[in-house]
Design a protein that fits this description.
Layout (H helix, E strand, L loop, with lengths): L10 E5 L4 H17 L2 E8 L9 H30 L5 E7 L2 H11 L4 E5 L6 H6 L2 H8 L4 E4 L16 E5 L4 H17 L2 E8 L15 H6 L2 E7 L2 H11 L4 E6 L13 H8 L4 E5 L9
Parallel strand pairs: 1-2, 1-4, 2-3, 4-5, 6-7, 6-9, 7-8, 9-10
Antiparallel strand pairs: 5-10
Helix pairs in contact: 1-2, 3-5, 8-9
């Protein structure tokens, strides 16, 4: 295995809307930036939309007010970051006027970012299935790993501190899964975390005599891990094992598919991201997991 493919993020993007969920995500981003010696970019996006009935004079007046608002938001962002993670070397603050998803995707490509860390809500229901969340839309569109963070089950919003000691890695015989294994190995080495590799035999699939032969050599050489075989629906088994093992992180591969592909809502990755009891790191297929800088 070519060890030059080791995951070494140099730029980490952390979008925030000042909510407790995004504050926790910011603490995870700071943890990752500290462990890897990466630059941390914190982004806040807002939207300026004058009413359609406004005259040009009124719009110009609002624009001047909007610039003052942007400067105030920057000061608020600076204070929010200071209160959340303290003084941080290699920090960049960005305030932009744009829809959140567009702003995050654009900023992730401009540097470019090697990791996006953002808060999410584990919601359900028809409206959510139709509209999706900002985090899920970002996962579909960016080309680097995305860590989606929510409070672990039983935790109170805004009080939990980041901890990654137990990592769960679902592994399949795909190139995307190999990439997720490399990312997992790099994270576990930096954080001194335990890895559990799980292979799920779904209904109708034959059991493989050597289900873990797909574990990359790099991971075998550099990381210590245990293996688990489960049978049943992949998403359900991954979520169940994460809960039983009290995992701190699930790392899962994702296939890039069109936004309006309805089947994406039934995928294993989407279900795990929505319902896992801990943060989920999604590694998109074809993502650039090395950094040229």
């Amino acid at each position: 295995m070519n060890t030059q493919n080791a995951y070494q993020p140099k730029v980490i993007l952390a979008p925030t809307d000042f909510s407790p969920h995004s504050a926790l995500a910011l603490r995870y981003a700071a943890l990752a930036a500290h462990c890897f010696g990466a630059r941390l970019k914190v982004l806040h996006a807002y939207q300026f939309e004058p009413p359609l009935e406004f005259t040009s004079r009124q719009v110009n007046g609002l624009a001047r007010s909007e610039e003052r608002n942007r400067r105030a938001l920057y000061r608020h962002l600076k204070q929010h970051v200071l209160e959340t993670i303290g003084e941080f070397e290699g920090l960049e603050l960005v305030v932009v006027e744009a829809p959140p998803v567009e702003a995050i995707v654009r900023e992730s490509e401009s540097s470019p970012a090697d990791l996006v860390v953002m808060g999410t809500h584990g919601r359900s229901g028809v409206n959510r299935l139709l509209m999706g969340s900002v985090a899920e839309n970002v996962v579909r569109r960016v080309h680097c790993p995305v860590l989606t963070v929510r409070q672990k089950e039983g935790g109170a919003a805004g009080t939990e501190e980041p901890k990654i000691e137990k990592v769960l890695l679902p592994l399949t015989e795909t190139e995307a899964s190999l990439q997720s294994a490399r990312v997992t190995c790099a994270l576990a080495k930096q954080l001194e975390a335990e890895i559990t590799v799980v292979h799920v035999v779904e209904p109708g699939e034959p059991e493989r005599p050597e289900p873990f032969s797909w574990v990359p050599d790099e991971m075998r050489q550099k990381c210590t891990f245990r293996t688990v075989v489960r049978a049943g629906n992949a998403a359900e088994q991954i979520i169940s094992l994460a809960r039983e093992s009290n995992c701190d992180l699930v790392v899962i591969a994702a296939q890039h598919r069109p936004f309006f592909d309805a089947s994406v809502f039934g995928s294993t990755t989407d279900r795990v991201m929505r319902h896992a009891p801990c943060p989920v790191l999604v590694v998109p297929s074809g993502s650039q997991i090395t950094h040229s800088g």
